Amino acid sequence: MARRENPEINAGSMADIAFLLLIFFLVTTTMNVDSGISKKLSEKPPEDYVPPIIKEKNIFEVNLNFRNELQVEGERMEIEDLKDAAIAFIDNGGGEGKIEEGVKTGPCTYCKGERSESSSDHPNKAIISVQSDRGTEYGTYLKVQNELLRAYTVLRNRLSQERYGMSFDKLEEAYKDDRNNEALKKKVEDIKTAYPQIISDAEPTSSN
Amino acid sequence: MSKFRKKKKGMPAVNTASLPDIVFMLLFFFMVTTTMRETELQVENPRLPSATEVKKLEHKSLVSTIYVGKAKDIKYGDSYNRIQLNDKIATADDVPAFIINERSKVSEAEVPFMTTSIKADIESNVGTITDIRLKLRDVNALKISYSASKGDGN
């Protein structure tokens, strides 16, 4: 009688294990979120639009040729060095800032650059102009854009750390979590106006 | 006493009562992780460049995607500059119509928040991207995002 008895493995907790696994995967898998470098295009200029005259020293010229070679301000450069060169240019602060609605922004008080006469006046005047060739590879082009954005991130983080004791990334994150916080909004705007991202794309050349 | 000894004999069958649980678990897992693609890719899945300064795209319904890459169908040639809109290969001239069509799907108040995501292969040419960009500017679709994966950038 007792010989036939099949002792069954208790499977009552199997469901629990399964649910545990399910929850584990639910928590750990990140859904494939689209991410990318965001950019805002400039609006189409009217027919009779005359571009303002910008001083040569306020333009940081970045050229990319169809062989994916980089040239900055007339000299060849490796992509690795681009970030530092861009930082030096933006943060130069050699003169007065631009006049916004009749209010002078004055010289850049937070810049830590060389204040050289031959480089940019103020971060809000410093324009980075990227000119590429139609044959340039998109991967290289985006790498250059990324390096330039990184330069701005470094500067913004530095200023934010000095003024508010936390990096700009953290500041923005905090603002994202709390959209109604006016104080945070002001801080974010403040840093953004201190180092505005002015990257323009020039009409690409076509070599062939 | 003898009762205890006798229990050792006999092979107990593995209980399969929890098999449905496991199957359901797998089902849920795949349901969660699979992102549905509304359009079938006509170009080879673009090898996205990697970048450090990426931002996540929010509000999926407000994003229209343009693919650029090598066409799967050989009749379109083997360059990495084919543009896919919706589910067919198109040219840059078709971009405005595509954007206007996308706009009609959302309410008017949300139109300014629409973003165009450009998913281009790393070997695509800047010329193609510029053509798209100029067309986007013509129809005032000014928010764009160059799709890139988060990486160390080098």
Describe the structure.
The complex is a heterodimer of chains A (208) and B (154). By secondary structure, chain A is α/β, with parallel strands linked by helices. Chain A has a domain at 60-157 and 197-201. Helix content of chain A is 37%, strand content 14%. Chain A is built from 5 helices and 8 strands. Chain A has helices at 14-28, 79-90, 138-164, 168-177, 182-194; strands spanning 35-40, 59-64, 70-72, 75-77, 99-100, 103-104, 127-131, 199-201. Chain A has a 5-stranded mixed β-sheet, covered by helices on one side. In chain A, a hairpin with a 2-residue loop joins strand 5 and strand 6 (103-104). In chain A, helix 2 (79-90) crosses helix 3 (138-164) and helix 4 (168-177) packs antiparallel against helix 5. The longest helix of chain A is centred in the last third of the chain and has 27 residues, at 138-164. The N and C termini of chain A lie far apart (93 Å). Chain B has 154 residues and is α/β, with parallel strands linked by helices. Chain B contains 4 helices and 8 strands; from the N terminus they run H-H-E-E-E-E-E-H-E-H-E-E. Chain B has a 5-stranded mixed β-sheet, covered by helices on one side. A two-stranded parallel ribbon of chain B has the order 1-8. The longest helix of chain B has 15 residues, at 19-33. Chain B is elongated and about 85 Å long. The chains are: A alpha/beta (208), B alpha/beta (154). The interface between A and B is large, with 55 and 62 residues.
Beta-strand content estimate of chain A: 5-15%
Order of helices and strands of chain B: HHEEEEEHEHEE
Q: Tell me how many strands of chain B there are.
A: 8
Provide the β-strand percentage band of chain B. 15-25%
Helix/strand layout:
The complex is a heterodimer of chains A (208) and B (154).
Chain A: H1 14-28, E1 35-40, E2 59-64, E3 70-72, E4 75-77, H2 79-90, E5 99-100, E6 103-104, E7 127-131, H3 138-164, H4 168-177, H5 182-194, E8 199-201
Parallel strand pairs in A: 2-7, 7-8
Antiparallel strand pairs in A: 2-3, 3-4, 5-6
Chain B: H1 2-6, H2 19-33, E1 50-51, E2 55-56, E3 63-69, E4 82-85, E5 88-90, H3 95-103, E6 115-120, H4 126-138, E7 143-147, E8 149-150
